[in-house]
Amino acid sequence: MSISIQNLTKVYGQQKALDNVSLEINKGEIVGLLGPNGAGKSTMMKIITCFIPPTEGVVKVCGEDIFDNPMGVRSKIGYLPEHNPLYLDMYVREFLQFIAGVHKLGKNSKERTEMMIEMTGLTKEVNKKIGALSKGYRQRVGIAQAMIHDPEVLILDEPTSGLDPNQLVEIRDLIKNAGKNKTVLLSTHIMQEVEAVCGRTIIINNGIVVADDDTKHLSAGQSLESLFRKITNNI
Ligand code: ADP
Ligand code: MG
To answer: Is the pTM of this model over 0.90?
Structure first.
């Protein structure tokens, strides 16, 4: 089991962002997390990646508990946060080497950095400052930093939001490729993306899991979009 979530609840002040969520994600699955804005997607991802604590519940990543062994959990996860925070004044290669250092990759740092540059198609941009890159290339840097330590699990929070149609296809292909031997949980608002990339789809609404099935089963006989509208508008 790559990700195990039991009875997860998160309350911010008066607001319940996640309400008793339980789910398990197996090794090698590529799972799409859908839900309207404010459904709780980012909150779930931030808890899995140990950025914020849950109010209640048990979360394990590759068997490691987020409370008992947060460093162990982080070493198994690559995370692309929603707004992809990057150091805009750093050069692409310099930034990736810096992240390799954070992961204490030691003598492998150089090799992993070059491997990620090639894999994410950053070769031509490698001597530019991150601030000079287009949104699509910044996303590539975000994915490269998420994968540099070769984690078993990738958590990608809206990795294709704000991209133009060409960039969108490129990043989607990159995720598909990267996900071949990893477990991936990605959130998105694009239904075709889920249909193209994710074997399984989880829909959350108001902090509650309202659908969880093979993408093919979920959308059988109707478009994923109309199903999504039905269950998130309560009609
Ligand atoms: P999504 O990623 O699905 O759009 P979020 O997880 O970001 O949803 O948010 C879920 C709910 O929790 C929203 O109503 C949001 O306003 C609220 N929320 C998120 N972060 C905070 C925070 N730090 N403080 C208070 N409320 C928050
Ligand atoms: Mg979000």
So the answer is: yes
